[in-house]
Design brief:
heterodimer; A: alpha/beta; TIM Barrel; four-stranded antiparallel sheet; 9 helices; 32% helix; globular; B: alpha/beta; Elongation Factor Tu (Ef-tu), domain 3; Rossmann fold; 2 domains; seven-stranded antiparallel sheet; seven-stranded mixed sheet; 6 helices; 16 strands; binds flavin-adenine dinucleotide; binds flavin mononucleotide; binds FE2/S2 (inorganic) cluster
């Protein structure tokens, strides 16, 4: 059995496979279908300081090898999470990470500070890359100054592992990664969804209620992998890779490109037990190639 | 009550496939272990459709029937697009991968309510969950009335099964069978007194059924068919705007008390 443990800053994961925010609820929705304790980490639904209703229906469009969504961060707010969700997940033996979003650096920081109070939440993932909200979200993640302002505000109040989730909807993602590293982020995760759209030719109208949405699933994988490759070369902090991972081979590609851990999103809709299968697949790969630790293959594709 | 029914990832095999009328298929599935797990009327399964990049997501399909002995699961599929057409092409012996049962089903009257007289109103393929509901009511000693509608005679399926379980009233838009018109125009609404209405079908039909039930002060439950991705309450794609805000049709429905919906 190979050693699958990996570290993201001070956070230790029992294996490098996590679930991506917004695709796995709070984990408990999947508990009948997959052993949650076999997953390295569960990144819960995007959480904001105040409750949000999200965008109107329709919020989803299927596309070739993927899907578009414009959920728009519907959630019951940070206080509801602390009171009603946290007690239900705190005894499950895996790392829970809260995906935090906001409309200003102050609201991000306030929400992050509330999460710092929860003993079992050892890290947060800052979502500065949601393409489906008018205020905040991606507006912060598409400029170095915007990204820095949020990370700076949160870093001042949040002592635990701080992962910043980057948007692919930029010209140079490495530049944004360097900007958040400079403000003290412990890690970057990428990618969030790519902005896209679909049109219903019979109705001659966009399919989604707000016209555009974020593309996810295997259709985005080559773009995500290229960005992980570039960011790995640009920063020293650990990189978490995601975008279109459907199986162990996809996940191993991300590890070889430089990711210390991966997240699986849309694939959970196709196979609710995909995460534990990917863990097993990574383990088999390490055994087959004679590596005793997953660490040994991280970034390996960059070496001559 | 049915929230506690355990969800599974199941590989079932097709034992029988029949085209009931053009484009409508009844698929009978069995499990290698002999029994299909517990399911509740109104719940659905997420069916994996392999073979094309266009059918990437699973397709939600209602439980049409779980036989009383739990040996067979039936699905009734209307082939409307790539995914349902692929399901229509399955042959005996094929394996189908399902996640389910999902969602909350219809509320069943408790067995001490002897004066229960439910009306089950279905349109097109929306009659699918009503067969299972009819069987469950009948098992509890309640004789339901079915009101089934379609554009023409060939849209009305599984009639012989419904007739075994209760009284059946029919409407077709062309008058080829039953009364001419829509289910909401059938005379039965004026001649009989019902204690509960259950409905599944095209949304405009369900909205009108809910209106009549509301006027007659009969409680009404409707099964919604919003577009879904996960089917598990995780992605929040399938929401319906209700008096309680946006609720997930997959996990908080698909069956809703219509007084919760902003229809009337
Ligand atoms: C809870 C639930 C239960 C259902 N039960 C049944 C059933 O028992 N039998 C059955 O035949 N169908 C049922 N449906 C509808 C079925 O899921 C869709 O017809 C199917 O997903 C369409 O897929 P497709 O690839 O064939 O068509 P697509 O090419 O995806 O679409 C073809 C057409 O169907 C519409 N459509 C797509 N997805 C849905 C959807 N989820 N709901 C309604 N319309 C949709 C599209 O707008 C389009 O007009 C149910 C849907 C839900 C949500
Ligand atoms: C329905 C849906 C909801 C999402 N919600 C969030 C969210 O709340 N916060 C966030 O950071 N990312 C969110 N994402 C993005 C995913 O976490 C992930 O970055 C993206 O889907 C790419 O990974 P994948 O191809 O494996 O799905 C969402 C994605 C989907 C499909
Ligand atoms: S389909 Fe994902 S929440 Fe309903």
């Amino acid at each position: 059995m190979s050693q699958l443990t990996t570290n993201i800053g001070a956070l230790t994961l029992k294996n490098p496979v996590m679930t991506a925010s917004g695709t796995f609820g709070y984990g408990i929705e999947f508990e009948d279908l997959v052993d949650l304790t076999g997953i390295g980490g569960i990144i819960v639904k995007g959480t904001t300081l105040e409750p949000r209703q999200g965008n109107p229906y329709p919020r989803m469009a299927e596309t070739a090898h993927g899907m578009l969504n414009c959920v728009g961060l519907q959630n019951k707010g940070a206080d509801y999470f602390c009171r009603n969700i946290y007690p239900k997940i705190k005894d499950i033996d895996t790392q829970f990470i809260v995906n935090v979003s906001g409309s200003s650096p102050e609201t991000y920081a306030e929400c992050a500070a509330m999460m710092a109070e929860l003993e079992r939440i050892k890290g947060i993932e800052l979502n500065i890359s949601c393409p489906n909200v008018r205020q905040g979200g991606m507006a912060f993640g598409t400029s170095c100054s915007g990204a820095s302002s949020v990370v700076k505000a949160v870093r001042a109040v949040y002592p635990n592992t701080l992962i910043v989730k980057l948007s692919p909807n930029v010209t140079d993602i490495a530049e944004i990664a360097r900007a958040v590293e400079a403000e003290g982020a412990d890690s970057v995760s990428l990618i969030n969804t790519l902005m896209g759209m679909a049109i219903d030719v019979e109705r001659q109208r966009p399919v989604l209620s707000i016209n555009t949405g974020g593309l996810s699933g295997p259709a985005v994988k080559p773009v995500a992998l290229r960005m992980v490759w570039q960011v790995f070369e640009a920063v020293k902090i650990p990189v978490v890779g995601l975008g279109g991972i459907m199986n162990a081979t996809d996940a191993i590609e991300f590890l070889l490109a430089g990711a210390r851990a991966v997240e699986i999103g849309t694939a959970n809709f196709i196979d609710p037990a995909v995460t534990v299968k990917v863990v097993k697949g990574i383990n088999d790969y390490l055994d087959r190639h004679g590596y005793d630790r997953v660490e040994n293959i991280i970034g390996l594709a960059h070496k001559q | 009550m049915n929230e506690k029914i355990k969800k599974h990832i199941l590989d079932l095999s097709v034992v029988r496939m029949c085209e009931l009328s053009p484009g409508y298929f009844e698929i009978h599935l069995i499990s290698a272990c002999g029994t299909i797990p517990e399911m509740h009327p109104g719940q659905f399964v997420q069916v994996r459709v392999d073979g094309s990049p266009e059918t990437f997501l699973r397709r939600p399909i209602s439980v049409n029937l779980l036989t009383v002995d739990h040996t067979e699961l039936w699905l009734l599929v209307h082939a409307v697009g790539a995914g349902t057409k692929a399901l229509a092409c399955l042959n005996e012996g094929h394996t189908l991968n399902l996640v389910g049962p999902l969602g909350n089903g219809f509320t069943l009257p408790s067995s001490d309510e002897y004066d229960t007289h439910p009306l089950l109103v279905g349109g097109g393929v929306g009659t699918a969950p009503l067969l299972f509901l009819g069987q469950e009511l009948s098992q509890r000693g309640i004789r339901p009335t079915f009101l089934l509608g379609g554009k023409r005679k060939s849209d009305i399926m599984q009639l012989e099964h419904f007739q075994l379980l209760g009284d059946v009233a029919l409407t077709t838009e062309d008058g080829s069978v039953g009364e001419r018109g829509f289910v909401t125009q059938h005379s039965i609404w004026h001649t009989d007194a019902f204690t509960q209405v259950y409905t599944c079908g095209p949304k405009p039909m369900m909205v009108n059924v809910a209106r009549i039930a509301h006027e007659q002060k009969i409680p009404c439950e409707a099964s919604l068919e919003n577009m879904m991705a996960c089917g598990l309450g995780a992605c929040l794609c399938c929401v319906e705007d209700t008096v309680e805000g946006n609720l997930c049709v997959c996990s908080e429905g698909p069956v809703f008390d219509t007084s919760k919906l902003k229809w009337i």
